[in-house]
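User: My advisor asked me to double-check a structure prediction for Aldehyde dehydrogenase domain-containing protein before group meeting. I don't want to rely on an old file, so could you generate it fresh from this sequence?
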Amino acid sequence: MDQVLELVSPHTEELLAEVPVSTPEQIDSAVATARAAVDSGPWPLLDPTERIAVIRRFLDAYQARGGEVAELITAEIGAPISFAKRAQVGLPTAMIGAFCATAQAYPWPPFEGMWWLYVPMAFDDYSIVLIIQEAPDGFRSLNDCTRI
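Assistant: Sure, here is a fresh prediction for Aldehyde dehydrogenase domain-containing protein from the sequence you gave:
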């Protein structure tokens, strides 16, 4: 740990923690690892209900520790605990929950028997997943295509 950042309470001026400062190389490595996990991991192959389930598990774990998160926010930036609980923890969790509910209610087409082609894009760190309901003749010959 070469460099640390001191987190000081604005209310008491007490040292709350020392956290390591990442180097640009460490950040680039973390981003590359995350990108590779998305590009080659299972996420592009998950159907929407499976993705929603993953996000809901994260949301449940976050909500279970919401009080702790609010206390950390209060200590670090001096926000009133009621504001931290309602606005800084409560609103994001409510929004993510609403997004999950909307996605769950959407009439997604069935993925079984479809063909997918995953196309990592070289610009802006975006990727495209093409879902094709009926594969045209010869489509199976593409090495990058998989039937799901």
